[in-house]
Amino acid sequence: MTPASPITLSPIPDLTVPDEPLTAALDRAVADHGDRIAVDFLGATTTYRTLADEVAKGAAALVALGVQPGDRVAIALPNCTQHLAAFYAVLRIGAVVVEHNPTYSADELAHQLADSGATVALVWTKAVPAVLEARDRTALRHVVAVDLAHDLPLISRLALRLPVAKARRTAAAMRGPVPADVPLWHRLVRAANPLPAEHPQPASSEVALLQYTGGTTGTPKAAVLTHRNLVVNAEQGHLWTKHRRGQETVYGVLPFFHAFGLTLCLSYSMRIAATLVVLPSFDPALVLAAQRRRPGTFIPAVPPMLDRLVTAAEAAGVSLRSFTRAISGAMALPAATAQRWEEATGGLVVEGYGMTETSPVALGNPFDATRRPGALGVPFPGTEVRVVSQSDVTVDVPPGEPGELLVRGPQVFTGYWNRPDETAEQLVADGWLRTGDVVRVDDDGFVLLVDRIKEMIVTGGFKVYPSQVEDHLRTMPGIQDVAVVGVPGGVMGESVVAALVLRDGHDVDLAAVREWCGRKVARYAVPRRIVVLPDLPRSQVGKVLRRVVRDQVLSLPAT
């Protein structure tokens, strides 16, 4: 491909690609900052030295379960200290982490577990029944339960035993039933001897992570990310933020099973030897309690989180002035949200752009006066971008014209797990990755989003694939056909709307639709609104025209 317009390069080109596994960052943190608090989970603290010991014991426990280099180990956990330790324990022995949303249904978990070929699953106690239900459809040899309560401070663990309603509700939210034949992870770790230091380390070129994404089709497939991909993206982030090693406090409010939270919290915070304040889920009250206890300096988040935190802090009289930097991703950062955050903190917030296939960050706004809310930003260090014709990726569009964004850099994935055809569609000649997003580059080199080629919906930072919701709704009695679209949803980005064609003599309301969807799809994908149409607009080949449906929905009164 000979570009007709210049390739846009990163403004910070001096990236040295480290030749090391992701676990090397933990080794350095222990050597340089062993007594520094690595994790604060609801007030329970773990130093880097203690964390490294937990990782070594966890690695030995996995070896005892028969895990070998290259084996896939599934992790289906909320944010907690054990998630961090298990993640690095899997990597330490050269095995491959497969992250899963712990709230997925048995069917969703079964597909991913079977597809990855995972042989061991480390699972939140509340998700154990779903994994056991799916087990016969997978290659799993061992299911190990992880008790979140084990990570709590001692006084909090004791409080869960109190015979009062609040304690029972809290315990029920954190724990689930575990059959007697399912071992507990913390007991396996406690009984293990640490993995010997001389145990072979994985090479930087080896696979570290299978991260599931819907890509352009909505069919979940695993992006294959190497140690090098993840190490590079963490190092790119360090060059971007210029954070002080061993002096930062990062707030882990994003889910670790998501590519954004995984890189910014699990790998980036380790690389800069930060204290990671871990929250099991995003709750403004929990964040503010942590802020009173251990003020943060950096928070990766999605825009609705930032908005809610400012509102809650103002109401509670809690200062956010310790936060010097924030990075917003997964959806557009509204200018009003950026202004509110910067006024509340006195720090900076910038927007980043990426996808699972780029580990995940590829572009970002600079942490200076040139930042531009609403723009995707400029390429990360060592990253190149091109803007090409939507119909022919070999043809670059003229400067300033819209086209599909292509990305190339050391953080770009190696392909999709066991899907060579889809890999070939996504990774084109010379290592360029098709993003599926239509952008243009302005005169200052900033990349601006014009539209999405993909029809996914982004709500609250989560991706909703319309076809998955539609497939389930078509099984609901009374529904003849359905199209799911996203419409503007305020601070949530987009709101999920289901346009229904009903069978003769049937009536369906929103409550029934939400209940039906709640059985099979993630909570964030459940429609927030329904409209009833006499028919769905289709192309000449019979494909539903979702964009036309969306226009119809927008023309109707919001009810």
Automatic annotation (TrEMBL):
Domain AMP-binding enzyme C-terminal positions: 469-543
UniProt keyword annotation of Ligase present: yes
Keyword Mitochondrion: no
Molecular function GO terms recorded: acid-thiol ligase activity
A Pfam family that the UniProt record links to this protein: AMP-binding_C
InterPro entries recorded: AMP-bd_C, AMP-bd_C_sf, AMP-binding_CS, AMP-dep_synth/lig_dom, ANL_N_sf, ATP-dep_AMP-bd_enzyme
PROSITE patterns: AMP_BINDING (PS00455)
Keyword terms, alphabetized: Ligase
Residues annotated as domain AMP-dependent synthetase/ligase: 27-417
Name of the molecule in the record: Long-chain-fatty-acid--CoA ligase
Organism: Cellulomonas gelida
